[in-house]
Amino acid sequence: MGDPMDPVVIVGAGPVGLTAALLLARWGVPSVVLESRAERDPVGSKAICFQRDVLEVFDRVGCAAPMVAEGVTWTTGRTYYRSHELFVTRFPETSAGFPPWINISQASVERFLWERAEAEPLIEIRRSHEVTALTEHGDHVVAHVRGGGEIRGSHLVGCDGAGSAVRGLIGLTAEGHTFEDRFLIADIRADLPFPSERRFYFDPPWNPGRQVLVHHCPDSVWRIDWQVPAGYDLEGERSTGALDRRIRQVAGDVPYEVVWLSVYRFHERVAPSFSRGRVFLAGDAAHLYAPFGARGLNSGVQDADNLAWKIALVRHGRAPGGLLGTYDAERRAAALENLRVTSATMRFLVPGSEQERAGRAAALESAVTDPAARSRIDSGRLAEPYWYLDSPLTTPTHGPDFPREAGAVRPAVGGVICPDLPLAGGGRARARFGTGFVLLTGSPEAVPELGEAASAAVDAPVEAHVVPGLDAVYVVRPDGHLAAVLPGPGVPSGLATALRRACALTPGIG
Q1: d(CA 21, CA 40)
Q2: Are 291 and 217 found together in one domain?
Q3: Alpha carbon 75 to chain centroid, angstroms
Q4: Domain count, the chain
Q5: Which residue of 27, 38, 447, 449 pairs with 464 in a disulfide if CB–CB is 3.0 to 4.6 A?
Q6: 163, 250 in Cβ contact below 8 A?
Q7: pTM of the full predicted structure?
């Protein structure tokens, strides 16, 4: 048996690693976060777009409110071809909860998480700790750091980014490919006459044959993202004044300040497995996507959310070790869906053959006058939670016509993230998620019986709440996904079976 005092070792103090540590702390699970950097770097930003369901995760660890207060809320995306506006996408706001999207610097998100983690007694952050080797001993794992130190943990989670040392130390590679085309990001501070919207331009006159993306960020910062040639020379442009001319083609004659510049090539890669023994991969250590659609960091936070409750239940002896085997099954399926969606986007943005180039040009030209052609235009299918329909933890309730296309409205069936429902007496169902299973019913009279039936079925914490008008019982996992949707407002006969399955207590899971 492992030592119950062993922490979980988390490698990487970026947003995914810190979120994992904070989620574990809510379950009373200690962690040690190993960060190779001596200090957090507050300069620059990669991800800027954070989706509503990810804000819900940040809310569970106590950070969402300041993020939303600092961030720029947006609900509209506009797509242009040359001088034509092709279409507008609007994301619905809700009367409760969080906006559909905020733009905020990844550096700011990391700062809020870091401050929260440093104030949490169950989290210890160790800077200047570079992991150089891992040793697994059956009931624990040891991380060896440069200089000779050793940190023992019950489990280890590699959240150490695209060049993950943990991934290499467990013998895995990120399989896929890298795009040769480059993209230039310039974050500038300026007063621009644009609304707070996502604006994507195909073939604008100021970047002919390529794309430009414009986003509003906090503190009057605007992100401008250009596709540039493979041999693009940033320093050459800066020295000749060409960079200033490039920026002014978007910003006009207003004064501006360059906040951050970066040139990237984008990757489409997924590890062949997200776990090996007691070691797990999350975030960029597990998967890399092109950023059009904001599916990278948003997905990484959902990795942490999926894994934390499973580690907690296993450590507390409330679920078998097989529960941890479902992390790879669920989150790798999500990663492959994100890879499919972002790869299709990149094939449209950066055609790899004459046939693809011709198809793209024809689609864009047709979309100017033909609304039916606009569905073929792909500037990035925006991030959304994955649906665990085929998970071994899910009691299946979906039909053959379940909508799997990116951006579709999903019905409330087993595997889908639970909608944000109002509770009887006030409050939101989602505010109750995170540290146990939640049962939602439309019948106040059924609540005591549901609680008793759940306690008899599983040792995991379960609480029941009333949602007025609900004509089924929703069995909600700690990460907010529906484990089952059971018919009838009372105590359904399949409740015990669904809960046991969701805790991997059914034989053959894991």
Answers
A1: 17
A2: no
A3: 18
A4: 3
A5: 447
A6: no
A7: 0.95
